[in-house]
Amino acid sequence: MWSVVKKIIALSGDKNKYIKASTIAATVYAVFVALPYTAIYVFFQSASNQLTTGTLLICVAILLLSLVGGSIAKTITYRLQEWASNYVAARKRLEIGEHLRRVPMGFFREKTLGEVTAVLTSDITFYENKAADVLDWVVNGLLQSLISCLFLGLFNWKLGIIFTVGFIVAYLLLNKIQIESEKIIPQQKQAEADAISATLEFIRGISVFKLFRMGGHSVKNVKESYCKYSDTSYKLEIKILPWSTILHCCLKITIGMILVLVSFLTIKGKLDMALSVTMIVASLQIFRPLETLTTSIGNVRTMDTTINRIEEISNFPMIDEGCRDITLEKFDIEFNHVSFSYDGKTDVVKDVSFIIPQNTMTAIVGSSGSGKTTLARLIARFWDVQKGSIEIGGVDVRKITCDSLLKNISIVFQNVYLFNDTIAANIRYGKPDATQEEIENAARKACCHEFIMALPDGYSTVVGESGSHLSGGERQRISIARAILKNAPIVLLDEATSSIDPDNEVFIQQAINELVKDKTLIIIAHRLTTIKNANQIIVMDNGEIIEKGTHQVLLSNHGQYSKFWEISQKSSEWKVSS
């Protein structure tokens, strides 16, 4: 159990001094809790002879001191613990958000969205709400019972030993409960993350489920995930129930032994009435903090697992750890014998070498799965290469922090993501300090100013989650406006026009032409008509470069590109006949 306390202290960082101070306050509180036993003893000791006003006032003073001092110490203890846990929770959310910005994209292949969401929501919320309680149950509860046992030993060392032995047995059983629950709670937290993933998938795919009449199947998956979560929670309770029962029985047996022994010693005249009453009252109160801790041990163990999950994400290696902020002077791109694998086993890019001169257009084409998109994302350092190097302006991208690298790169993906915010705010992501005039100029260049102004709220229109209130072409043009506003010297276009209707394609092509003026452009496209004017075209197959040259040169080679071109020309003549 103390390991959980150590983890809470470690997670608190520079605020752990408040938790350490709360432990001192908790010790003081435990002393105040034990003081009433003195008042009881003094009162009955005097009552057996002659109770005087002075003695009564002393007892009242001790009780008042215990109540007032205990209340102050308890308030200080809990406020320090609560303040530290709330501060840490708020800070951790921001830290993890910043950390996730700098982890390799491979992190999101290892962790599901449900796992990450569970950490950022339920795990940190649990820490925020329960860290102070866990400290109260473990630190305050154990200190309170232990100090009371030692205090009673001052009155009668033999009875004090019985109290202390009962405390030690209870402590050992609590540790046993913790060990048993440790085997189940990680499974419970994983089941919770899986349930969140299933719920998110159901919400995101509900239109597909309805379209293909798979609603029942999708709901079944959600039900199964929550049933699994319920089963693991039930399994946890069943696992620790016998040990909790044994612990409660041991505490009651200890209390019973004390009551019997006190009665026996009193009858034999070896224990006076004052001490007898004191011990009886103490036996009924002293183990209550341990009983509370017993019923809350599941929360203690959950806190341990929660902190482990938070630290696992917080400590995931950042892709640019140890890198420097470097200002690039040139923007030519060079691949030097680059190989890359997502799983560490099968290379999806194999010994690729080529140069993209500054302010030129390079197109990358190939069949699906040939490695085109991987090349583009390696440039942006979403992943790091395992072999070879990628240099921009003669600098290996692995030496540059993500922020200083990506400020030089604009990316337009096929699947555009817009935030649930206004159109102006979404465009402003390209330049956070942009004026409204700059935003509108970028929108005009991206051919989207007219349709924005036709909306009821213009640039103040909220686009909905993922831009759901806009069409695909409108979302694409807004993403291009965002890239134009950023005005980065390198532009990556990943299938930016592949799924756009012909009317929108005209606008988007005009927007792209505006975007790429005087830029180093890398474009991935299936529509070969959009890239025939490229300075060089790279043809990929199975992770390797099989052809390289201009449109005319590649056609004259009669290789794979020539076949792609022939297919694209034929497909433009396809018609649907009845």
Notable traits:
21 helices; 4-stranded antiparallel beta sheet; 2 domains; about 575 residues; ABC transporter transmembrane region fold; 6-stranded mixed beta sheet; alpha/beta; Rossmann fold
Q: Summarize model confidence as the mean pLDDT.
A: 82
Low-confidence runs: none
Shape: elongated
Instruction: Find the count of extended strands (DSSP E, 2+ residues).
Output: 10
Strand order of the largest sheet: 6-7-8-3-9-10
Description:
The chain has helices at residues 2-11, 16-47, 53-100, 107-110, 113-155, 157-182, 185-204, 206-211, 215-267, 273-285, 288-295, 297-314, 372-379, 402-406, 423-428, 436-445, 449-453, 472-486, 502-515, 551-557, 560-571; strands at 333-341, 347-356, 361-366, 387-392, 395-396, 409-412, 490-494, 520-524, 536-541, 544-549. It has a six-stranded mixed sheet, with helices on both faces. A four-stranded antiparallel sheet has the order 2-1-4-5, with helices on one face. The mean pLDDT is 82. The protein folds into two domains: 2-314, ABC transporter transmembrane region fold (Up-down Bundle), CATH 1.20.1560.10; 324-407 and 527-573, P-loop containing nucleotide triphosphate hydrolases (Rossmann fold), CATH 3.40.50. The protein is elongated, with a radius of gyration of 35 Å. The protein has 578 residues and is α/β, with parallel strands linked by helices. The chain has 21 helices and ten strands. Helix 1 crosses helix 2, helix 5 packs antiparallel against helix 11 and helix 9 runs antiparallel to helix 10 (273-285).
